[in-house]
């Protein structure tokens, strides 16, 4: 097991700016997971280290999750594709249940995790899967795929989709660099080699 690079900050260790950010996190529609000592889990402890950028990052995340134009299913499918691509265990741990709760079939979720064929029944979700996969593997989206995304999601949805990929890729990479573990007692997330 790889050791995390930052010791989690407990609430009693925070400065004023960090406490203000923690208060904002506590007011989110979905509470941030905490460890037994009150420290934040996932990407949020790292955001506390740099609260000015953390506030901005959390704002982007909240806009995507709670005020975005993509459906819950489309957004969560995109996030799972990002998590699997980057082998981001915490991201997968946090979002696989949300994807299932949004109605994505278990077989589709498992196919994303294992690197199998991702062929959703819904045409819009198929466009999401194709565009996200292309963006993650090539760093771009070709003209036909972009046109299909705009036709299925609208211009706002297509642009938002690229933002989802960028935002969750940023979190995945940051958690990898900082060696952020899964919460205590969480089932391991295994991606194929």
Structure description:
This protein has helices spanning 16-26, 44-49, 51-66, 72-86, 89-101, 106-114, 123-138, 143-178. It has two domains: 11-65, no CATH class; 70-177, Up-down Bundle (AhpD-like), CATH 1.20.1290. It starts with 15 loop residues before the first helix and ends in a 15-residue tail after the last helix. The protein contains eight helices and no strands. It is mainly α. The radius of gyration is 17 Å and the shape is globular. Helix 3 packs across helix 8 (143-178) and helix 4 packs parallel to helix 7 (123-138). The relative contact order is 0.15. InterPro entries: AhpD-like, CMD-like. Residues 56-132 form the Carboxymuconolactone decarboxylase-like domain. It comes from Pseudonocardia xinjiangensis. This is Carboxymuconolactone decarboxylase family protein.
What is the overall pLDDT average? 95
CATH class of the largest domain: Mainly Alpha
Write the CATH fold name of the largest domain.
Answer: AhpD-like
| Topology as a string of helices (H) and strands (E) | HHHHHHHH
CATH homologous superfamily of the largest domain - what is it?
AhpD-like
Terminal CA distance: 17 Å
Are there runs of 5+ residues with pLDDT below 50, and where?
A: none
Strand content: under 5%
Count of folded domains = 2
In the CATH hierarchy, the architecture of the largest domain is Up-down Bundle
General shape: globular
Question: Count of helices?
Answer: 8
Biggest sheet: strands, sense, closure?
none
Residue share in helix = 55-70%
Question: In a nutshell, what does this entry contain?
Answer:
This protein has 193 residues and is mostly helical. The chain folds into two domains: 11-65, no CATH class; 70-177, AhpD-like.
